[in-house]
Specification:
single chain; alpha/beta; 7-stranded mixed beta sheet; globular; binds guanosine-5'-triphosphate; binds magnesium ion
């Protein structure tokens, strides 16, 4: 089957509410702790290793990077949180824009919460989930456990069970951007929001 996400293009990095693209179509934000593997996942989903920059230094992404899949769908790579050392101040400065974004953005349909499968649901992940649902109660949160290649199957299952039980959800996806595991399923899930 043709991969619709293959045509995805970078539109712009945004640091203020006023420079957002038009509030139309569907927007999905990609969030997670710094180094969780958001940008790698975006590249794997779009089959384009050059699309989003993969950080060697955690906390490199400081803007919300908007990517256009097609006229109907945009993906937004948010700056990583939870990495106190590098960009705490910048993220604090940026937070007012994020507040307004979550409250007002009509086209925003889902937040994909990326977590390293070896460290699911850190305090900052729970705080982020509470934060978005507080501002946008109808937002769907899609939980994605990344770097599955780092764990054996039974250990992966434990992480999934923990997440499902703790968040009382079955909206959990396991991926590896390294070997492609789960990427197609997640891609199909995201395309259902259109
Ligand atoms: N083994 C393995 N490593 C991965 C995988 N996905 C990402 N990584 C590595 O994890 C590191 C962080 O990946 P990024 O995709 O840049 O993470 P990010 O969440 O975008 O990070 P920030 O932009 O800093 O918030 C890189 O060294 C990646 O190569 C995976 O599926 N398996
Ligand atoms: Mg990134």
């Amino acid at each position: 089957m043709k991969n619709t996400l293959r045509e995805t293009k970078f539109i712009k990095g945004v640091t203020s509410y006023k420079s957002l693209p038009q509030d139309e179509g569907v927007e999905i934000v990609l969030a997670g702790r710094s180094n969780a593997g958001k940008s790698s996942a975006l590249n794997a989903l779009c089959e384009n290793p050059k699309l989003a920059r993969i950080s060697k230094t955690p906390g490199r992404t400081t803007e919300a990077n908007f990517f256009e899949v097609n006229t109907e769908l945009r993906l937004v790579d948010l700056p990583g949180y939870g990495y106190a050392k590098s960009t705490k101040k910048k993220i604090n400065n940026w937070a007012p824009f994020l507040d307004e974004y979550f409250v007002k953005r009509n086209c925003l349909k889902a937040a994909v919460l990326f977590m390293d499968i070896r460290h699911p649901l850190k305090d900052s992940d729970r705080a982020f989930a509470d934060y978005c649902l507080g501002l946008a109660p109808n937002l769907e949160i899609v939980y994605v456990l990344t770097k599955a290649d780092k764990l054996k199957k039974n250990e992966q299952n434990k992480a999934v069970f923990f997440l499902e039980s703790f968040m009382n959800t079955s909206n959990v996806w396991v991926i590896s951007s390294l070997n492609g595991f789960g990427i197609e399923s997640l891609r199909n899930k995201l395309l259902k929001f259109i």
